[in-house]
Amino acid sequence: MEIVELVDFLKNYDGRKIRLMEVCGSHTHAIAKHGIRDLLSPQIELLSGPGCPVCVTPTAYIDKLIELSLEPNTTVATFGDLLRVPGSKESLNEAKGRGGSVEMVYSPMDVLALAQDHPDRKYVFAAVGFETTAPVYTLLLDNAIARGLDNIHILTALKTMPGAISFLCDNGAQIDGFIAPGHVSAVTGADYFNDLAAKYQIPFAVSGFGSKELVIAIYGLVQMVINNDNTVKNYYTSVVDSGQNDIIEKQLAKYFRPADVVWRGMGIIPGSGLLLKEEFARFDAGSDGLDEDNKRNKACRCGEILMGKAKPHDCPLFGKVCTPMSPEGACMVSEEGSCFNAYLVK
Ligand code: SF4
């Protein structure tokens, strides 16, 4: 079928209500950027899931980074979008304003040069992300070991997707199909989601990030829902294979072990995090047990939004107290966040 025919179908669909969730924050952004919601019938609802890394990072993690940044002779290095994520009381940016040592970098590898140039200083990298980003930290550790740098550490809030998807399905999220995370799938392969599809009898469509790719995947997913085809279909074959990348799998298994970790607003999800193995504990800046998740503003509904149980406009703070310039919750900080994207198109 031509793309216009797919759009025509999606626009005029008048069957039962279908609720689809895009799990990946980059999909959330792409869907907003391309105006994909405007192409869909009111009977097809797109919900944003817990796939924006900074959105699901608990406040205890931000608080720990702040604490480290204020320790003598210690610098916290991070990507830019983590700087404004609220902790329980303040953000890293605010801590920097009162003397915290915080360095924004574009790659974890930037820390190698810093650590080499300042051997007496301790550098802590804020390792946030999913299966896609985790391999980069293994390269950082490979290089730190090869260069004999013992002043590099990571504070990990790394997470893996299956536990979060299971959590949603087990907790009444009422989702008919998942747009599987495209970047994660590029690392894990599409088959990664087979067990979830079978266990929860729910279809998955792996999608790219362009407007046509999204339309094709959403059309495919709607067809799967209608036909009760609860399998995984890969609509992103230019990038995603069926199986996992062996080299990455070995790298992750070398350094990390699965752990029970907290997702912001969702609580502890068993086996959904990656912590350093015991033999690499010397590189850990204290990642275990960061379980507190105290909202700075109690009215923030990030947790419900990440679980598809509320939408950004349901939050009383949306666009008034909470904006991208002045975020009250993590979902308003990153360009992958649901509230940020809803604000862009409001
Ligand atoms: Fe939280 Fe702001 Fe979103 Fe409300 S609008 S849920 S305060 S991030």
Can you tell me about this structure?
The protein has about 350 residues and is of the alpha/beta class. The chain has 2 domains: about 1-300, 3-Layer(aba) Sandwich (Rossmann fold); about 300-345, no CATH class. Helices cover about 35% and strands about 20% of the residues. The protein has 13 helices and 11 strands. The protein has helices at about 5-10, 25-35, 60-70, 90-95, 110-115, 135-145, 160-170, 180-190, 195-200, 210-225, 245-255, 300-305, 340-345, and strands at about 20, 45-50, 75-80, 100-105, 120-130, 150-160, 175-180, 205, 230-235, 255-265, 265-275. The strands form 2 sheets. A 6-stranded mixed sheet has the order 4-3-5-6-11-10, sandwiched between helices. The radius of gyration is 20 Å and the shape is globular. The model has no long low-confidence stretch (mean pLDDT about 95). The site of iron/sulfur cluster (SF4) has 15 residues, from helix 12.
